[in-house]
## 1
Amino acid sequence: MNITLKALLKSPWVFHLSTGSCNNCDIEILDCLTPRYDIER
């Protein structure tokens, strides 16, 4: 099995590194985890 197919069969891992102080990126990422935009499904 090639690495591309193997990666597509599993859930992606995302690492978020906050480099700013406004927390806007944190809010946007948390919005993706709400029931309306559930990225875990």
Note: Residues 24-32 form the longest helix (9 residues).
## 2
Amino acid sequence: MTRQWLHDTISSSLPVICGLAAATVVICDAIGVSLNPGYNPLKESISDLVFYPFGWLEQIGMAAAGLTQALFAGFILSSRSARINHWVRISGFIFAAMSIGFGVITLFKTDPGLGIESLGGGVHVTTVIAMAALFPVNCYLLSRAIGGNPDSATILHFSYVMAAIGGLIALQLLPLNPIRFIGISERLLAGVNLAWIVFAGSHLPHLVDTPLEPPARPAK
């Protein structure tokens, strides 16, 4: 009873919360950049905003994004699909891990610049890299698990785009690369992630809760 209540409650509020969370991330970043003319959004990472005035806006955005991951985890793990499909269940656990990851990168600040100079900075960077890799992988797993639904193809395409942009970010971090547009690369990846969050917020309830229909028999 409690599990079903949790599932139904999240399902009804997921579209609105995901839309508000995405808007919060964009607005907080835009305000943070506009209030700090010395900050270069092209070459400085999103995490570097924390070292500027009103840096707490960046943390609010991270908290909003983490909330959506926690809701996805709760919704998926409380669904009937998670009880009968282990891939759906694994996807739910990955979303839960990512919600914890957002808490970690909020708690542990990055080091200034692109180098790692402290334990906290190392934890932050490692967690960001792990999350950047996990998100498209999880989208892929989930799209395969619910592959009988037409909208699953859109989720799969999003995962490909995120993987490509994630690779671009990795190239910006190479020591031999003299031009590092890490800021714009991160924002491109964040934009795709937010688009997926908004899409999933309105479509996941249908995709996860609708049982797959058996293939129709050919007419004799």
Note: The chain is about 70% helix and 0% strand.
